[in-house]
Amino acid sequence: MDNIRYDFEIEKDDFERAGEASSSIKKILRQLGLNSGIIRRVAIAAYEAEMNLVIHSNGGSIVIEIDPRKVTIFANDKGPGIKDVKLAMKEGYSTASDRIREMGFGAGMGLPNMKKCSDDFSIKSILKEGTFIVMKMFLKDGD
Amino acid sequence: MHSVVLKEERCIGCTSCLKVCPTEAIRVRNGKAKIIPERCIDCGECIRICPNHAKSVTTDDISIIKNFKYNIVIPSLTLYGQFPANIGIGKMLNAVKRIGFDEVAEAAMGARISVHLLRDYLLKKSDLKYPIINSSCPAVIRLIQVRFPDLLPNIIDLETPIEITARVAKSEAMKRTGLPYDDIGVVFITPCTARVTSVKNPLGIEKSYIDGVVSIREIYGDVVRNIDSVSNGNIGKSTKESLLWSIAGGQAEAVGIENCLEVDGISNVIKVLEEVELGKLDDIKFIECSACYGGCVGGPLLIQNPFIAKNRIMNYVKVAEKSIMSKEDLDRFINMYEEGFLRLTEKIEPKSVMSLDTDLIKSIHKMEMVTEILKNLPGLDCGVCGSPTCRAFAEDIVKGENSEALCIVKSMEYFKNKIT
């Protein structure tokens, strides 16, 4: 098979390891020899997804899949789910607590930023069950 | 060309340097450290750590001055911290000059021009990419080239104070002496390994005006011997700003940039640049990166402890005058910048040295093999196999660069299992 897949488990409130998954993803893409532009987009999207899982979810996973045509990031969590996805996609909208904002997170840019970095972005959220995000970045000639 | 080299007879094949190399450019093979040239950024971390002094630097011999009719020496600004503060800058400069130079050009000149160009002109431009990254640390520039190619446009395209000093001093000497370019030698006395490389194999400019680079270590003895017999002279032109330049955070302070981030030590620089890459520091105006702890005063080729050196330089800062530049002078330097004389004119190209293969499908297959091999390695990153980490060991095997090495931990386990 011409594709490769990596799974990263993300735990709720694990600020100590937060960022490690996206950092590993970046290293993997660099070793695969991808263009720095697409590496940066994937790294930002993966980082935002990872932080979302740490801050807002009950834990979940980030999965990255690379094939000769595209990079795909799956961010799945175990809840609590987003009430109003449309609202959550708005820049600056955040449900983060003051404590989290004081730490420099929760600016309400996570989801919009993820969308901005992807060529194809889909989000599905079911209350109490979880949020499921798929982001695709297509490789062009030279990537 | 690299300035960092191995003195093979001194290397005992220990793993100290493997661990500190920020680009994983070292392997131990057949009991000796080997530097992978494409990866090395000449930061000098391995020189600093090597307990056997096997890592060294190739510099020019001072006898290079015989090739020229007129010789200018530029001592690094860090020189001032290498001697007790009561000696005085003038005495140090004269002591260096006496080694055999016709003229000493103070790096303070270039630092002053840099400070004014940045403060009064460059940072006011509208087409800048934030956060701006300083261009003054050659190891950081090479690090960005290898590990953060996306941040190359953030580097300010101003020449370093040393190169600026060399260019202005050489041009003025040509006018004054009537000698042609090739008859005037410029020698830089360096605290820095990466600077040696940037003279011999320049990045961002076509050719350096510096003809020779000699380490401070090498001339230190001569300076000590000369220092009692020279006068303090009237040649010190240091300003507060120029003195601050060699100390971490000093550039931003000299230029007076608000909302700036100062980071020193190459592993810290990597962490900060990773945040920049993620777009998390876009609100910061200027990032002053130094590969060495403490800034240039922490350079690998210096004698004095960086904290002591900093204290001494700060004593000079206290009494130094602030720099004032006339409108005419500033305009003259702006002109030189715009004409490309004081500017990085050549594009710095990204260097992809980390990839497993140039072909993506082959890369993916190799990556699968790396992952598979890694599952069978202990993950201790002990370095005994000669690669810095288990991961690097797996990569080396897949790339076919390490067919003989074996994992000692795994072998021990194997034998233990055989016995029991």
Quick structural overview:
The complex is a heterodimer of chains A (143) and B (420). Chain A has 143 residues and is α+β, with helices and mostly antiparallel strands.
Description of the molecule:
The complex is a heterodimer of chains A (143) and B (420). Chain A is an alpha+beta fold and 143 residues long. Chain A has a single domain, classed as Heat Shock Protein 90, CATH 3.30.565.10. In chain A, 36% of the residues lie in helices and 27% in strands. In chain A, a hairpin with a 3-residue loop joins strand 4 and strand 5. The longest helix of chain A is centred in the first third of the chain and has 21 residues, at 36-56. The mean pLDDT of chain A is 88. Chain B is of the alpha/beta class. Chain B has 16 helices and 11 strands. In chain B, the strands form 4 sheets. A 4-stranded parallel β-sheet of chain B has the order 6-5-8-9, with helices on both faces. In chain B, helix 11 (266-277) links the parallel strand 10 and strand 11. In chain B, helix 3 (89-97) crosses helix 8, helix 4 packs across helix 6 (161-177) and helix 14 (360-375) packs across helix 15 (390-398). The longest helix of chain B has 17 residues, at 161-177. The termini of chain B are far apart. Classes of the chains: A alpha+beta (143), B alpha/beta (420). The A-B interface holds A 2-4, 22-23, 26, 28, 30-34, 36-37, 39-40, 43-44, 47, 66-68, 113, 139 and B 149-150, 274, 277-279, 350, 352, 354-361, 363-365, 367-368, 370-371, 395.
Please tell me how large the radius of gyration of chain A is: 15 Å
**Assembly level:** heterodimer
State the strand order across the main sheet of chain B.
6-5-8-9
CATH architecture of the largest domain in chain B, by name, is 3-Layer(aba) Sandwich
